[in-house]
Each structure stands twice: as structure tokens, then as C-alpha cells.
Specification:
Blueprint lengths: L2 H9 L11 H9 L9 E5 L4 H14 L4 E4 L11 E3 L2 E2 L2 H15 L8 H15 L4 E5 L17 E4 L7 H4 L3 H8 L8 E4 L4 H13 L4 E3 L5 E7 L2 E6 L2 E5 L4 H19 L6 H10 L7 E5 L2 E4 L5 H14 L5 E5 L7 H8 L3 E6 L10 H10 L4 E3 L3 H12 L4 E5 L2 H28 L3 H17 L1 H5 L2 E3 L11 H5 L7 E7 L5 E6 L5 E3 L5 E3 L4 E4 L6 E4 L3 E2 L5 E2 L5 H6 L6 E5 L20 E3 L3 E4 L7 E3 L1
Parallel strand pairs: 1-5, 1-6, 2-5, 6-7, 7-8, 13-17, 14-15, 14-17, 15-16, 18-19, 18-24, 24-27, 27-28
Antiparallel strand pairs: 2-3, 3-4, 9-10, 10-11, 12-13, 19-20, 20-23, 21-22, 25-26, 28-29, 29-30
Helix pairs in contact: 1-4, 2-5, 3-9, 3-10, 4-5, 7-8, 11-12, 14-15
């Protein structure tokens, strides 16, 4: 069985419907040797905040030196994310081998296990066979009858924020849901509770009392926010200072829950130094939870999918971006309370760009947009995720904000598709910016940039310079060719000779030029001298976008970037208009960072040159 076959088997497993109960999991694990019996756990249940709390606990325990397993659901981009050890996803080979072992047992059972029960068994085997010291175990749904609850008393049972969810399975009141989730509390463990809804807290307190379990409650009156920006949050809890990278005021509450869990673990004898707590909290990451995907425009991704998550997102926008309207890139599941979600988020909306999550339960984008339009909100539907990302970026503009939300199903695909879609959008935006220059402006700004290049030590000392002849609105280097500093130098030019290959030629006369396959002026090989790349002292590259760190985005084909690897003796620089500058350029496969970038206004130096920016 290959890793791909294992994942396909699990995700298409015939018994995937929700069937609460422990008997099937107990039977399955018994036949596999009860791997869970040899493991220690922190068991985490709740309606919201489970994943973030698990991520913070995992980071702290790893930093403290423990071999730590992490079991979460659902995954964001790869199935393997659900089962981790020491921050690494389960390797495909291990997943395939374990799936075959579990499959052989599961298919022989009279009452077949569910999909989630199958995955839980695979994870338990993996954690035992890799000798985990402790496993941070997230409940799938509920608590008492969730398949993860087959474990013996955990070191700590953690109850995060509890709200109304899955009422068809867990109960139709907060009290019933809290009682179900508190089923993970067993005699012999410690418990930690989010002090939120009083009715839920009362149930947890009652159960801890009945089972003689010491209870830690997060005391939010001892929680003080100090600083909050896109780089994270500084806060104090019970008089001690900490930093987290996770965004949103609600994450401070999750951090307080984490700190209470650490306290409970210490009571159980676990050695967790305070330095490990500080470093682990600061290092914790959890994708698709108000995650910053880019900053120009600011693109935030949040997997929130219920009214409580919507309120947390609204609180985060109030704290992070007060009084700023945002473009929501959204898709929802038809069986979720999306009307209540929109009630909360509509006041923050500049516009909605609607997508259809990749799920059988998805509300079609057209229907979602029609619903929003009916409420008087600006909304439009996009046919696929890449076009939706680009439409949202266009609507926001470089100084605006995009917030992707509505479903973890959607969040994973947005996260996967974002880099390529953003690069395509940024390239288009910066080409549009340079094309908006008039011919007169382009000529004058090109002259100024060429003068800067000609005056540079890199150009003055070079004997062989590879440059280009402009097309499609690129910065022109005519003035550089005619500059006094160019006298005596070999000025060579690129030619594309295949779908991926470029060579350098020294043209012999003006009749040595012709239009190449991309409409770019290129030397004719019969009237030019080939120049080996190792003979080139300076390469001047065109491009569509750059940033202050000298990252460069090419035209997309990667001809230059493949060729640059061969220019082992050359300085590598870029010529561009200042309007092509971006806050940050995401580096792609072929986008080699430049040593320097010359525009009509400035010379940018990369960290390699250690010289900063020269303006004037």
C-alpha cells in the first residue's frame, strides 16, 4: 500500500458516518494490543479553542524536552497533519504500513469502526511505536462517547470554551453539551476548565466534585493584554509575562488555559521549566486561525465556521484593525448557522467574495452571494478558489484587508492555493503599474535608473555585462548602452533557445537583431558570438516586482533564473521602476534574490551586501 492509497482508503472508508460509542474502538485497539495503555495523555475537549490550546501545549512540552505526540482534526492541507510527533507529520510510509495493519483488523470486525475510530487506532499505534512520552489528544466530537475517550485517566483533562454545537448528537442545551464533553474527566486525573458560560462551568465543577478530581479554572481576571499587532501579542497571566504569535484576543484566553494545564501537569510530576513555557508559547503556530498569509494587502485566514468563531473574529478585527472595512472571502456549509455568522460580521464588510467550499455539504457560492445581496450587502460569486483570491485582492487593493473565513474545508484549500494565486495577482498588479506610465515618463525614469547603474562600482568594474532590450513596458536600458562608462565593455544579450533554456550572445552590428518567440528583441545567432556564462561579470535582470529585501519576481517562465545559476562569477542585479516595488515578494521556484535593485529613485541592497538602501 502506498501513502496515497492509505489516505484514499481512509477518506473513502465505507463507515464514515458519525456513530458515537466506545465499543468498536475498544475492540479494535484490543485486537491491536491496546497501544493506548502504555501512553500518557493530555485530553482536550470543548467547542472552540481546542486546536490552538493543543498547539500551545504541544510546543511547550516539546521545548521542555519531551517526545510529544499531537492528535488533531480535521486537517488543513494534508491528511498527515492529524498525527504528529515532535512537530513533524506522520511520514507517508509509516501511515501506509499502519493503515494496512489496522485495516486487516477493522475489516474482520462484525461491527465495523467508523472512519474517525480507524484513524484514532492508527495514531495510537504510531505514538506507542515511536515511544512518545506524552500525547496531546484532541477530542473529535463531544467527549464521553468520542473514540478518543477509550484511554485510561489522562494526566490532565482540559475543557476549553463550550457552546451550542452538534446538538443532534450532544444535546440541545449548554448543560447537556457540557456534561457530554466533561465525560473525559476520570477519577485519578487533574482537570482544567475554561471559565466561560456559568452553566457549563457549573456542570464541570459538579462532575469534578463527584469524581474527586482537582480542578483548575482559568482566571481571566488575572489576564492582562499588553501589546497586540500582526507579529503577535504580549500579555501577563498571574503576574508573569509571555508572548504568543497567535492573533486574536480569544487566543489570550486559550493561552491562559494552556498555562493552567502546565500547572496541573507540574502537580502530576512533569518537569516543565518556566523557560520552556515562555519559549514554547512564543513558538506555537496553528494554521488557519487568524493566520497572516501576506501583508500587502493584509490577507488573514481564519477557519471559523460557527457563530462563536464569528464573534471571536469580530473581536479580533476590532482589536487589530479598528474602524477598517475588510473584503471577506467566504464560503460556508449549508448546514451551519451562516445567517448568525453574517449577523456578526456584516458591519465589518466592505464586500463579500463568495466561494463554494469543496464539500458535499457546501452552500453554492451563487446561493450565498444571492443571500448576502438580499440583505443589502455587496457580494459576488467566483467559480473557483484561485479566481476568488485574485478578486478579493483586487477589491481590497494593496493597502486594504482580505479576510478568508467560513469553513475549515475552505481554509485548507485557500491556504494551498494562495501562494500561486497571490503571485499571479501581484505580477498582474505590478505590470499594470508600470504600463500606466506614459512613454515620456518611461523614457525619463529609465534614463535616471540607467545613470544609477552606470555610476555603480559593479558596472564600472565589469568587462562583460548581460543586459536586455526592453519590451512590454519594462525599464529601458538604451541610455546605459550609450553611457560613457559602457565604452570598452562587452554588452551581451539573452536569447531563448528552447522552452526552458537561455544563452548569452554578443551581437555584431544592428542587423544582428530580430524579434524572438516572445516578441522580445534578441540577437541572431548567425550574426553574434556566443559568450560562456562564466565569462559574465554583471547580469542586469528585468522583472515584474521586487521588494526592499531584493526579492524579485520574474515574468513567470524562469529563463533568467535558470541561467543565473551558471553565472558563477557575476554580480546579479535588477533594473525596475519604483512603482514595481511591493511590500513583500513571495519567492517562487525560479525567483533568485538579487544582490541589488536599481530604480529611478533608489538603489536597494540585499542582506548579502550589508549596505542598506541608497536614496536620492
Amino acid at each position: 500500500m502506498t501513502p496515497e492509497e492509505a489516505i484514499s482508503y481512509i477518506e473513502n472508508y465505507g463507515w464514515s458516518t458519525t456513530r458515537l460509542g466506545l465499543d468498536r474502538t475498544r475492540e479494535l485497539l484490543y485486537k491491536l494490543g491496546d497501544p493506548q495503555k502504555t501512553l500518557k495523555f493530555v485530553h482536550v475537549a470543548g467547542s472552540n479553542g481546542k486546536g490552538s490550546t493543543c498547539a500551545m501545549l504541544d510546543a511547550i512540552l516539546r521545548t521542555a524536552g519531551y517526545r510529544t505526540g499531537l492528535y488533531t482534526s480535521p486537517y488543513i492541507q494534508r491528511f498527515n497533519e492529524r498525527i504528529r510527533i515532535d512537530g513533524e507529520d506522520i511520514p507517508g510510509g509509516d501511515l501506509a504500513a499502519l493503515t494496512e495493519r489496522v485495516m486487516a483488523v477493522a475489516e474482520g470486525m462484525e461491527d465495523h469502526p467508523s472512519q474517525f475510530e480507524l484513524v484514532t487506532a492508527i495514531a495510537m499505534l504510531y505514538y506507542r511505536e515511536r515511544n512518545c512520552d506524552i500525547v496531546v489528544l484532541e477530542v473529535g466530537m463531544g467527549g464521553a462517547l468520542d473514540s478518543t475517550n477509550v484511554i485510561d485517566p489522562p494526566e490532565v483533562a482540559v475543557l476549553t470554551n463550550i457552546g451550542l454545537e452538534h446538538t443532534e448528537y450532544l444535546g440541545d442545551t449548554i448543560e447537556k453539551i457540557a456534561r457530554t464533553k466533561a465525560g473525559i474527566i476520570k477519577p485519578g486525573c487533574r482537570a482544567v476548565c475554561y471559565d466561560g458560560d456559568p452553566a457549563a462551568t457549573a456542570v464541570v465543577e459538579q462532575i469534578c466534585g463527584e469524581r474527586n478530581v482537582p480542578l483548575h479554572k482559568a482566571d481571566f481576571s488575572r489576564l492582562t493584554a499588553l501589546r497586540y499587532d500582526l507579529d503577535g501579542q504580549d500579555f501577563t497571566y498571574r503576574g508573569k509575562a509571555y508572548h504568543i504569535a497567535l492573533l486574536g484576543p480569544h487566543q489570550l484566553c486559550n493561552a491562559a488555559m494552556t498555562l493552567e494545564t502546565v500547572s496541573a501537569l507540574r502537580e502530576r510530576g512533569w518537569d516543565i521549566p518556566e523557560k520552556a513555557v515562555e519559549k514554547g508559547l512564543a513558538a506555537a503556530r496553528w494554521p488557519a486561525r487568524l493566520e497572516v498569509l501576506d501583508r500587502s494587502p493584509l490577507f488573514l485566514l481564519d477557519g471559523g465556521h460557527n457563530p462563536q468563531c464569528a464573534q471571536a473574529l469580530a473581536d479580533s478585527l476590532d482589536a487589530l484593525l479598528p474602524d477598517q472595512k475588510v473584503v471577506f472571502l467566504a464560503g460556508v456549509l449549508a448546514d451551519k448557522d451562516y445567517r448568525a455568522i453574517i449577523d456578526t460580521l456584516a458591519p465589518y464588510a466592505k464586500e463579500f467574495v463568495c466561494l463554494t467550499p469543496i464539500s458535499d455539504r457546501a452552500l453554492p457560492a451563487e446561493d450565498f452571494a444571492a443571500y448576502l445581496n438580499g440583505r443589502g450587502l455587496a457580494a459576488r460569486a467566483c467559480e473557483d478558489i484561485p479566481s476568488g483570491i485574485r478578486a478579493a485582492l483586487d477589491a481590497a487593493g494593496e493597502g486594504g484587508v482580505v479576510v478568508g473565513f467560513g469553513s475549515l474545508y475552505l481554509a485548507g484549500h485557500l491556504r494551498e492555493e494562495f501562494p500561486a494565486a497571490y503571485r499571479k495577482w501581484l505580477r498582474k498588479t505590478k505590470i499594470r503599474a508600470r504600463d500606466s506610465l506614459t512613454p515620456e515618463e518611461r523614457a525619463e525614469l529609465s534614463r535616471r535608473a540607467a545613470e544609477r547603474i552606470a555610476a555603480s562600482p559593479e558596472f564600472r568594474s565589469a568587462k562583460t555585462v548581460l543586459l536586455y532590450r526592453a519590451t512590454r513596458g519594462e525599464l529601458r536600458l538604451d541610455a546605459l548602452e550609450a553611457a560613457p562608462e559602457a565604452v570598452g565593455k562587452r554588452l551581451v544579450y539573452p536569447r531563448c533557445v528552447s522552452g526552458t533554456e537561455m544563452i548569452a550572445l554578443l551581437p555584431r552590428g544592428e542587423d544582428a537583431w530580430a524579434s524572438g518567440s516572445f516578441g522580445i528583441p534578441e540577437p541572431v545567432p548567425e550574426r553574434s558570438e556566443p559568450i560562456p556564462p562564466e565569462d559574465i561579470d554583471l547580469v542586469i535582470c528585468p522583472g515584474t516586482a521586487f521588494d526592499e529585501a531584493c526579492n524579485r519576481m520574474g515574468m513567470g517562465a524562469g529563463f533568467y533564473d535558470r541561467y543565473l545559476e551558471k553565472c558563477v562569477n557575476a554580480h546579479i542585479i535588477m533594473a525596475a521602476f519604483e512603482c514595481q516595488k511591493a511590500a513583500q515578494v513571495p519567492v517562487g521556484t525560479w525567483d533568485r534574490p538579487m544582490e541589488m535593485i536599481f530604480t529611478e529613485k533608489a538603489v536597494y541592497h540585499s542582506a548579502l551586501t550589508e549596505r542598506g538602501i541608497c536614496r536620492g
